[in-house]
Structures are given as C-alpha cells and as structure tokens.
Write a structure and sequence with these properties.
The chain is mainly alpha-helical. The protein is built from three helices and two strands, in the order αααββ.
C-alpha cells in the first residue's frame, strides 16, 4: 500500500488534528517508512520458529518455600501504638 497525502489528511480529520502542509509531507514520509518496514517483516520466513510470548529469555529463580516462625505475635504487637485481641488498632480513614 502506498500512502498519499489524501490518506494523511483523512486520518488527520478523523483524529481531529489540524496539520500544516509540511507536517502532512513529513507524516507521509513517516507512514510510508513504517509500511515499507512492515512489508520487509512480512517476507521473513517464520515457518520453523516457535511462537513466543516475550522476546527475552525469562528464567525465574525459584526457591523452596520454608515456614519460619521468627517473630511471635507478642513481639510484633510490641511495635503497635494500640492493639487489641492480637490486632493492630489504626485510625479510621473512611466515615
């Protein structure tokens, strides 16, 4: 597909943009460049490639879950200005 200035003007009108003549010319060049790039990508042979969901090779380091009881509830609640029945008391933020 070859972009023409009428296409750019129509896109600008649909987008509610007002463009000067030099802006139309520059956008015409930019859009044509993008279309040419897409045409090059269409020619790439991808028959033997496995589809990817991310371009990088993501390998997460997983660790084994371990239960550790370092702090008791009493020790944790020592940091609370107010507490009751093993819960923190906080100021009301919603009326």
């Amino acid at each position: 597909m070859q972009f023409q200035s009428e296409h750019v003007k129509k896109l600008a009108k649909l987008s509610k943009l007002s463009l000067e003549h030099d802006e139309v010319s520059q956008l015409l060049l930019d859009l044509s460049s993008v279309i040419n790039w897409v045409d090059i990508l269409k020619k790439v042979n991808t028959d033997n490639l496995e589809p990817m969901f991310h371009p990088g090779d993501i390998n997460l380091r997983l660790r084994k879950d371990q239960i550790i009881n370092d702090n008791s509830i009493c020790e944790i609640l020592l940091n609370a200005p107010e507490q009751t029945d093993n819960f923190f008391i906080v100021p009301r933020v919603v009326d």
